[in-house]
Write a structure and sequence with these properties.
Helix content: 55-70%
Bound molecules: zinc ion
Largest sheet: 2 strands, antiparallel
Number of domains: 2
Structural class: alpha+beta
Strand content: 15-25%
Shape: rod-shaped
Strand order of the largest sheet: 1-2
Number of helices: 3
């Protein structure tokens, strides 16, 4: 805020009387806007930082695809089968069975 104070002080010397009060009010408004701008920028940065980890590590609502019927299901409600060291997600038990039958036969 130091440059702004300097501007206010320089106007105090040059401008006098009513004009000075008018200028002071404008500068005060600009100062408030600058403060508001920094506060908003800081708030936005905080929100971005908070949402970052969630985006990096998908939770239970992350959508996974059933390889049999190609339907997308939330990971939290999907049927999980580990076949040959790889994890597969299915919409239902019948899809998981079909997939295992396909691999076996
Ligand atoms: Zn399915």
């Amino acid at each position: 805020m130091e440059p702004l104070t300097a501007v206010v002080l320089s106007h105090r010397i040059v401008v006098s009387g009513k004009t000075y009060h008018y200028m002071y009010r404008i500068l005060l408004a600009i100062g408030l806007l600058v403060v508001l701008y920094f506060l908003i920028r800081r708030a936005v940065k905080k929100i971005k930082e908070r949402s970052e980890p969630e985006r990096l590590s998908p939770g239970k609502n992350h959508m996974v695809q059933d390889p049999v019927c190609l339907v997308f299901v939330p990971r939290g409600t999907a049927i999980t089968e580990e076949i040959g060291g790889q994890t597969y997600y299915f919409c239902s038990r019948s899809c998981a069975h079909k997939f295992q039958e396909k691999l076996a036969g």
